[in-house]
Specification:
This protein is of the alpha+beta class and 296 residues long. A hairpin with a 4-residue loop joins strand 4 and strand 5. Strands 1, 2, 3, 4, 5, 6, 7, 8 and 9 form a 9-stranded mixed sheet that branches. The protein has 11 helices and 9 strands. Helices cover 46% and strands 23% of the residues. This is Adenylate/guanylate cyclase domain-containing protein. InterPro entries: A/G_cyclase (IPR001054), Adenylyl/Guanylyl_Cyclase_3/4 (IPR050697), Nucleotide_cyclase (IPR029787), TPR-like_helical_dom_sf (IPR011990), TPR_rpt (IPR019734). GO terms for molecular function: adenylate cyclase activity.
């Protein structure tokens, strides 16, 4: 029984339940199922620099303390951790017996709760004389392949697909836009307009490993109300400016982005778009250019 309980810590129970749902009662090498789930990536900003200041045991103690705090918001919202990748967490949301909408809403709720858990954790760190840390979160919804890979003597569960890559790339965009939580338009569409969520449009981008561009948004709901209002106040100018950029109406785009900068000079988003427009305005663009910013 102890051995079984130990193995459950390496192979999430939800993986086994997922396979059972598709009629499989054993975990065999090479088994694969296709499903649509919400995928969440979360990692610590500036972790490399932070880790260089710690001794090996201190680093392990820090990571385990951090992961312990991040575990509950995921599990309490019907998700499960698929992998710890260094300081990063990859979590899946496959609401048992639920709809796609349930899965997407679970993932958004978990992302917001992760930010709340981080605030509490940072308070404890400050009380103990440690510096606060920050995290970036990316969330996407889409089809994935869930299965087992490896060899005869070493097997692991895994999740593959374009949707996983998108969620990972969204998380990597968080520091670029000074955003805590970055989500795709597909996730918001799945969540539904009736869900009480405050967001703003960030950009129209093409992420590494994918041809088709995606619309990316920043979640604002976890921020103090005043900060939400400040960030959202420029949203209409960002929307209109991006539409102009896609049409290669550079004067119109720059006009909207400069007006956004006047409204909120502390927000880095307008200046980002001004810089992008100046870059593309003087570049030799292909005839089929779709207005997307290519992110490497």
């Amino acid at each position: 029984m102890r051995l079984t309980q130990t193995f459950r810590k390496f192979v999430p129970r939800q993986f086994v339940e997922h396979f059972a749902k598709h009629g499989t009662n054993t975990l065999e090498l090479g088994h694969a199922d296709e499903d649509e789930v919400a995928i969440l990536f979360c990692d610590i900003r500036g972790f490399t620099g932070l880790s260089e200041l710690m001794k090996p045991q201190e680093l392990m103690n820090f990571l385990n303390s951090y992961f312990l705090r991040m575990n509950d918001p995921i599990h309490q919202n019907n998700g499960f951790i698929d992998k710890f990748i260094g300081d990063a967490i990859m979590a899946l949301f496959d609401h048992p017996g639920g709809t796609h909408k349930n899965k997407a809403q679970d993932a958004i709720s978990a992302a917001i709760d992760l930010r709340k858990a981080l605030s509490i954790y940072n308070e404890h760190r400050r009380n103990s004389g440690y510096t606060a840390i920050n995290i970036g979160i990316g969330v996407h919804f889409g089809p994935v392949i869930i299965g087992t890979v490896g060899s005869d003597d070493r097997m692991d569960t895994t999740v593959l697909g374009d949707s996983v890559n998108i969620a990972y790339r969204l998380e990597s965009l968080a520091p670029k836009y000074n955003a805590d939580i970055v989500v795709s338009a597909q996730l918001l569409k799945t969540v539904g307009a009736d869900y009480p969520l405050k967001t703003r449009l960030l950009d129209w981008v093409r992420v590494k490993g994918r041809r088709a561009p995606i619309e990316v948004y920043e979640v604002l709901s976890h921020l103090p109300l005043q900060e939400q209002q400040k960030r959202y106040a420029i949203n209409s100018h960002i929307v209109e400016g991006l539409a102009c950029r896609i049409r290669q109406d550079w004067d119109g785009a720059l006009n909207h982005f400069h007006r956004a900068l006047q409204i909120n000079p502390e927000d880095i988003l307008p200046q980002h778009h001004i810089d992008v427009c100046q870059q593309y305005r003087h570049a030799a663009l292909e005839s089929n250019w779709d207005g997307a910013l290519t992110i490497q």
